[in-house]
Specification:
heterodimer; A: 222 residues; alpha/beta; Rossmann fold; 8-stranded mixed β-sheet; two-stranded parallel ribbon; 9 helices; 21% strand; B: 210 residues; mainly alpha; two-stranded antiparallel sheet
């Protein structure tokens, strides 16, 4: 399959790139909405130089590193994406996608969500799951333009975080599993005929948690 | 085997119950601490509220009824059918960049503030919660307090705080936690809606502790 990793930062995209051999993988970098395009570009160049030292020359040699000048929904960016004929996108950019961007991928864009869908949508879902005594886990699903509302769930699993002693540690652990879950999700797609679980909107959308409840969650984790 | 299974089930059940009790105890302790903190500045609830089954029709106006409710005074009303305003929700959504318009829409609809807890108001509550916890929160966290319309934000916080006393959905209570932690303590200190917000918050905490 032809895969596009959509990211603002080269480092996070490169970690996934290394974990999914056997596909034609492109890293597509767009400017971070929190930085100017020039600062994003320079920051990524610095990361690339460092990564080059670690053996990423093949990425450059094969032209699989794409810099977008504008945001992902910009018509020029969308044109670039379409020309790449990508099957699947992997979401590592901190944005909400518009239809034009999603439609540039044959199957869609996959998201690695650190909560169990459809029950837990939105922010701080790890904390909310713990607070409410529900399982913690990861869901990989095809996004749409909403907040964790994409209907097609490819993979949803509980994850044991009993070794984690803080919210930060637990979050880092779940985020670090993105390459593992993306690899497994791509393997499922490669097999074909996979049945999707329905993200039917039956759950709730959660929001950033207060200090008071975060303190409760920290106690529960300990 | 046949005797071990029920035994293991019973052990698991006891373990789950113990975990549940511990979790609820930790949550209750945290809420109690916050209750004690706020009760120094807000009045403690005494009167029990009834949740509207359909709608409370009132001759009062929203901005008089809110402080009255917050002060534990009765607001006269009769049971009625929800108002027939098919465009209300669309108008509310359309007013996301018009705080003054939103304020008017909400004060007109919720003449009796307890109506925010009516079953028909689910979409409105979710919308208000989302606006407070996404767009407004982001503005506040970027220290742009002056960008917020004080009346509009406080009115919505009051409505959410009223509903938080009727629901086990902890997201509503946590929105109050969040804003209590986020708003500077001297912000709109003498605004009647700020005072009523604290009273409603205290009531919601009491409900969840019990």
């Amino acid at each position: 399959m032809r895969i596009g990793i959509l990211a603002h930062s080269f480092s996070s995209a490169f970690e996934i790139y290394k974990a999914i051999p056997g596909h034609e993988v492109f890293i597509i970098l767009s400017p971070s909405p929190h930085r100017s395009a020039r600062t994003s570009y320079l920051a990524n160049l610095a990361r690339i130089v460092l990564a080059t030292l670690k053996g990423s020359l093949q990425l450059f040699a094969t032209g699989r590193l794409i810099f977008l000048r504008g945001p992902l929904h910009d018509p020029k960016s969308v044109d670039t994406l379409k020309k790449l004929n990508l099957d699947v996108g992997l979401h590592k950019a901190g944005v909400i996608y518009r239809d034009v961007t999603i439609a540039a991928f044959r199957l869609g864009i996959l998201n690695h969500h650190i909560g169990i869908l459809p029950a837990y949508r939105g922010r701080s879902v790890l904390e909310w799951s713990i607070l409410q005594g529900d399982p913690v886990g990861i869901t990989v699903f095809f996004i749409d333009t909403g907040i964790d509302t994409g209907a097609r769930i490819l993979l949803s699993e509980e994850v044991d975080i009993s070794h984690c002693r803080s919210v930060t540690e637990a979050k880092q652990y779940l985020f670090s599993l993105d390459k593992v879950f993306f690899r497994r999700a791509l393997a499922l797609l490669n097999e074909g005929d996979q049945a999707f679980q329905l993200n039917d909107g039956s759950g709730r959308r959660y929001f950033v948690m207060s200090k008071l409840f975060t303190g409760v969650v920290e106690q529960l984790l300990r | 085997m046949s005797t071990q299974r029920p035994q293991r089930y019973a052990e698991n059940h006891r373990e789950n119950k113990a975990q549940l009790d511990t979790r609820q105890q930790i949550i209750a302790n945290a809420l109690r601490q916050r209750y004690d903190e706020i009760s120094k500045t807000a009045s403690q609830p005494v009167r029990k509220w009834s949740r509207p089954v359909a709608w409370f029709e009132s001759r009062s106006d929203s901005l008089s009824a809110i402080p009255a409710l917050a002060a534990d005074e009765p607001v006269e009303c009769i049971e009625a059918a929800p108002p027939d305003e098919p465009h209300f929700f669309d108008d509310l959504q359309a007013s996301i960049r018009g705080p003054q318009r939103r304020f008017e829409l909400l004060t007109t609809r919720y003449l009796h503030p307890l109506n925010i807890a009516a079953p028909s108001e689910h979409r409105v509550r979710e919308h208000l919660l989302e606006r407070l916890m996404v767009a407004d929160r982001a503005r506040l966290e970027q220290h742009s307090l002056q960008l917020l319309n004080v009346d509009d934000v406080l009115l919505r916080l009051n409505l959410i705080a009223i509903y938080a006393s009727f629901t086990t959905d902890l997201r509503y209570l946590d929105a109050l936690n969040y804003y209590y932690e986020l708003l500077p303590s001297d912000w709109s200190l003498n605004h009647s809606l700020r005072i009523s917000f604290l009273n409603f918050y205290l009531r919601a905490l009491a409900t969840h502790i019990n």
